[in-house]
Amino acid sequence: MRQRQSTTTVPAAVRISPLRSRRHFFVALAYLAAYVLLDWISYVHPFATFGITPWNPPTGLSLAAILLFGPEFIPWLFIAPVLADAVVRDFPLPLAGEVAASLIIGGGYASAALLLLWPRLGFDPRLITRRSLLLLLTVAVMAAALVAMAYVAMLVALGSIPPEAYWSAMLRFWVGDLIGITILTPFLLIIMTGRWTLRPTLELLILLLLIGVTLWIVFGFAGAYRFQLFYLFFLPIVWTAVRFGLEGAIGSLLATQIGLITAIHFGGQSSADATAYQALMIVLSVTGLAVGVLINEQQRIQQQLRLNQEALGRALRLSTMGEFAAALAHEINQPLTAIANYTRLAKEAETLEAASEAWDRVIAQVDRTGEVVRRLRNFIHLGRSDIGPIAVSALLDEALSYCHSALDSYGVTSQLRVERDLPSVSADPLQIGQVIVNLVRNSAEAIADAGRYDGKIVIEAERVGTDAVVIRVRDNGPGFDPDVLDRASAPFSTTKEEGLGLGLPLVRSMVEAHGGRLSIESSSSGATVSFTLRAVPTRLETQMS
């Protein structure tokens, strides 16, 4: 299939919001309206009559717009600050000042967005990696600082503020823009790239209530400890990030910020206190975002490990297809021979009754043949997990039926020893069957490689304790090489010239997935590999307990 090249900055695999498919002009109008609305809502504790406030969410909106819609959206970044000054503040600066402010704010954050979109940086607007989040925060810190210094220097040059107020105004501007980016930009990127999967739950409601209680504590006990009490916010934010990943962290941070600004506005806090609270909010935001993206990465790694395990299982199953084919030929030969004999009997039968009996036997052998084929198909079927109670004897008999041809080819005999009255075990018969086949095959190959002509493999099953059954595969081969015994179950550790070293690692992972434990013993007289499975209590044991 011919692939179509894409010029969008968002990876092609991302499902984008329908808003991005609308005409550019209407998207721009929506951006301008949202910019002015956010500027009006966040116009709290301003420095003089300028747009220097403790929280500047329009900045986060602008940066997200370029990252989502591309460089062609940059001209609107120069229009938005002038429009907001006109609507919200009635042009607090002279015309030259408004033009300079537009160039500083629009140019500064347009440059920051273009830097993030530089292909060599590898920034992903979906924020699925720590690196992308770190790039966003680093560029935001630098861009906000440069814009704040240039903007306040412009105000000093115009005589709008005294020179001695430069550093306090610059700090307030920098904190306001930075918190606007750290709170709103990740939220918009997650929403617009279609990665928002958070759904209302009782736990989320409890966390929101906890944030509300924390706000009440922080602003209800104002005094010497009002800033120390702010660190109580770390509990719900980190909790949400750990439980719900980056999406949860972003949602809880946005709720906290809205509640914080509301409390500052109606709580009679001073401008200095508002800036101090927002500086603490930056620390809280960076912490919450970092924990959230780490949780997301951990979840992706776990998912990838599961996929890799399935791929390794597929490789191992394919490597044993020869044995399976031999087992199929061996088992299917008898019913086919019987079918041929019964068919001849039915053809030569002198009575209708004898012919009917022969055809009944033909049908029975056909069913048996189908069962053999079904068992082989199920055994090599990938991705299936069907854990349930199964008798140990049935599990061993079916698994060993796939090993007869391989044992015959190596000249190795087998013996089955099953303790009487064993309880059933909780297992996926396909996976545990593969475990047994792998262990028996490894033993047979080791015996054959050692050149022994009296090779013998004993498969034992017995109960251990009250809640487990142990299955052992014991052979009289050369045992494990002492140099590789400690790493025998590590991936790609093998002494076979053509081996991949994947057998025992997969055996261990399958056994541990069933809640069991794998152990290996080796001596000069042979090797023993054993594993445990959980026993299913009998009805009598259940009643007694």
Q: TL;DR?
A:
The chain is α+β, with helices and mostly antiparallel strands and 545 residues long.
Based on the model shown, name its key terms.
545 residues; 4 domains; two-stranded antiparallel ribbon; disordered C terminus
Walk me through this protein's architecture.
With 545 residues, the protein is an alpha+beta fold. The chain folds into 4 domains: 7-196, Arp2/3 complex 21 kDa subunit ARPC3 (Orthogonal Bundle); 197-304, no CATH class; 320-381, Helix Hairpins (Orthogonal Bundle), CATH 1.10.287; 388-544, Heat Shock Protein 90, CATH 3.30.565. The protein has 17 helices and 7 strands. The protein has helices at 24-41, 57-69, 75-88, 95-116, 130-157, 166-192, 202-220, 234-266, 271-319, 321-348, 352-380, 392-401, 404-410, 429-449, 482-485, 503-513, 539-544, and strands spanning 388-390, 413-418, 425-427, 456-464, 468-475, 518-523, 526-534. β6 (518-523) and β7 (526-534) form a beta hairpin. α4 runs antiparallel to α5 (130-157) and α5 runs antiparallel to α6. The protein is elongated, with a radius of gyration of 35 Å. The two termini are 62 Å apart.
